[in-house]
Write a structure and sequence with these properties.
heterodimer, A: about 180 residues, alpha+beta, three-stranded antiparallel beta sheet, B: about 170 residues, five-stranded antiparallel beta sheet, 8 strands, about 25% strand
Chain lengths: ~180, ~170
């Protein structure tokens, strides 16, 4: 592979957020092929799931930020992807999270999302951030609330101009409100 | 680092998401994209566009963006390509509306094939083509590729065409 350079490593109390690696592929693809991916554009057939995985690398390569692989300290095994996501077509930049089922229920996504948001506000200089959450994805909605984000009924959702299904837009507290 | 290559009429360079996305979105909005996973909306088109730099990062190679020398316009993509699930690494190509019918795909694919042999060290290469994709079948024929076997992936039946070997290609260039 061509190493994606300059991807920072974030550390939290329990976690290391590192650059995506090819060895994360099988877990990523398995998740995107499963019913659990229903709120993040899945389930997808294998080939499209791999394309989604490649897009994680492509986002870093083109935007110079993206989603990190979340690992627990002392293990390099990827538990999911959390980070900063901003395709050119989206109305706003997002803090996103997707955790494999076996890693759920221990506050890992919360811890990782806090670190990603701090990076977005600090290093990347974002003035605001949203999280786009599908209707029905109550687990993610609860996490957004726990992060202090609130529904923003005025905000546009991805694909609003293309006839896409609406989703909920949670707006995170502004940098100055977290300081 | 993604290199930049040249042919008589084209520059083969890294895809630039900022400037190449609009023509990619136009391609994926058109019927021409039917053999490339389209047509689809702009959001899906962005994901498909980001797959290419992602492929470079994952595989160490990938398709190049094609820029027409005469106009500076983005003309399409061509080069080595090996998504998960495909039977073999291959040479792919696609042209945007308005660039077809002038042999540009053949020119770009041939340069991509030479890059795969000379720089990446491939000893063989194929291209997978849907049987209804007449223009691409003709490109394969012009390149001297020969139908070798069929492969089913998802809902698509692909013909697998074997390209000229590195030795034969080098001989022709000499």
């Amino acid at each position: 592979m061509i190493a994606l350079t300059g991807i920072p490593v974030l550390e939290t109390e329990r976690l290391v957020l590192r650059a995506p690696q090819p060895q994360d592929g099988p877990g990523y693809v398995a998740f995107m092929m499963s019913e659990r991916a229903q709120y993040v554009g899945g389930p997808l057939p294998e080939r499209r799931a791999w394309y989604a995985f490649a897009t994680e690398f492509g986002h870093w390569a083109t935007r110079q930020f993206g989603m990190w692989a979340v690992t627990e300290k002392g293990s390099d095994i990827c538990l999911g992807y959390v980070g900063c996501w901003s395709p050119q077509t989206w109305p706003e930049a997002e803090i996103g999270w997707t955790l494999w089922p076996e890693a759920e229920g221990r506050g890992i996504a919360y811890e990782a999302a806090l670190a990603a948001r701090a990076h977005a506000y600090g290093t990347l200089g974002w003035a605001t951030a949203v999280s786009y959450i599908d209707y029905g994805n109550e687990r993610s909605a609860r996490l957004a609330e726990r992060l202090g984000a609130r529904l923003d009924p005025e905000a546009l959702f991805p694909g609003h101009d293309m006839g896409a299904e609406p989703c909920r837009v949670y707006r995170h507290p502004a940098p100055e409100d977290l300081a | 680092m993604i290199p930049t290559l040249e042919t008589e009429r084209l520059i083969l360079r890294p895809l630039c998401e900022e400037t190449d996305f609009e023509p990619m979105a136009a391609f994926f909005a058109s019927e021409r994209s039917g053999f490339y996973g389209g047509p689809c909306d702009r959001a899906q088109a962005w994901r498909k566009t980001a797959v290419y730099p992602g492929h470079w990062a994952l595989r160490g190679y990938g398709p190049f963006a094609l820029e027409e020398k005469a106009t500076g316009r983005f003309a399409g993509l061509a080069g080595p390509w090996f998504p998960e699930g495909f039977p073999e690494p291959e040479i792919t190509w696609m042209l945007c509306d308005g660039f077809e019918g002038r042999g540009l795909a053949t020119e770009a694919a041939l340069r991509g094939l030479r890059f795969a042999y000379e720089t990446l060290g491939w000893r063989t290469a194929v291209s997978s083509i849907e049987p209804r994709n007449g223009p691409s079948l003709r490109v394969a024929e012009r390149l001297g590729a020969v139908h070798e076997y069929d492969f089913r992936i998802g809902d698509s039946d692909l013909g697998i065409f074997r390209h000229l070997s590195p030795a034969v290609l080098a001989e022709m260039a000499a």
